[in-house]
Amino acid sequence: MKRHQVFLNTATIALFAFLAAVAPGRAADTTPPPKSMGDGGIIHIPTNPTATSAWHFAAIQKYDLDKKHNIAIQLLPSATPTMTANLLQTGAAEVAIFSWVDLIRLRNSGVKVIGIAPFLRWGADHIIVPTDSTAKTIADLKGKRFGILSRTNLDFILNMAVAKTRYHLDPEKDFVIQEGATSLLRGLIETGALDGSQMFNNITPLMVAGGKVRILYQMKELVDSYGLPLTPELLYATSEDYAKAHPQNVRAFLATYREGVEVLRHEDAIWDDRGKTMEMPPEAISLLRDEMRLDIWTEFAPTTTADIRKAFDFLVSQAGTEPFGFTSIPDGFITQEYD
Prior knowledge:
Blueprint: H1 3-22, E1 42-47, H2 54-62, H3 65-68, E2 72-77, H4 81-89, E3 95-99, H5 100-108, E4 113-121, E5 126-130, E6 145-148, H6 154-167, H7 171-174, E7 176-179, H8 182-190, E8 196-199, H9 204-209, E9 213-218, H10 219-225, E10 232-239, H11 240-245, H12 247-266, H13 268-277, H14 282-295, H15 304-319
Parallel strand pairs: 1-2, 6-7, 6-8
Antiparallel strand pairs: 3-10, 4-10, 5-8, 5-9
Helix pairs in contact: 2-12, 13-14
């Protein structure tokens, strides 16, 4: 090869290298990562493997949606709100689900926790009775055994308000109240030891499919009948310290969560697969799928804080502040800063 040809080839290579360096596509190398990309950290989330949230976590795991957003979600077993709060407060968990009532109680006690997204709308759960029950309203359970999850539960407060204002019943005198965990209440009503009970939305379809209970009403019917605003009952939350230290991880979690819910909204197979692992019959899977597609929310509305205040004010007017443990709702308990 002649000397001038070698020089030409070398110059050509240098020219292409220069053009590649100044080409528009190279600008992406210095562009900050997308808002929804985390820093590669682990986000520990307390949950119950049979809870409503287990379904979108199944979608996240199936499609590696957390990895897509450069975080790693690890689920921790947790059976109660108190256990969940302890995990978050000690730093063993970074994100958790709370009712807005529990979240405000935590903030009022000095725990710097903040809601970052809604999860489940208020009204998704049910009141159930044995299949052969003749009850048509809660008034028909007067003098009978009624199971509740907690006296501070929003559904219980609203049910007792209905009993008092519509049917002139004394909730503590006219019902035999049995307070207990979901598994206990399920066992009691299926064996005939209860005449009615509250039940979580993810458990009811399996019980109905089993043929031993029927739905007396869904709580959203009562919420709507009072003209109360649509509000979430359960929220995703994190500590303010973690959010300030790792804002990208919080944004990455929200993006991951929302994509997981979108899978649930559009893909039936994920329901069938998860339902089979939980030994749910097809009819129970269908009931749960159709209900959850309506009642899982992923973004706060501009009016969410005001709507929760309205719901709180109504419930206080019916039951007082004692069930809540606080007299007003503080500002700043939820944020859209990480959307």
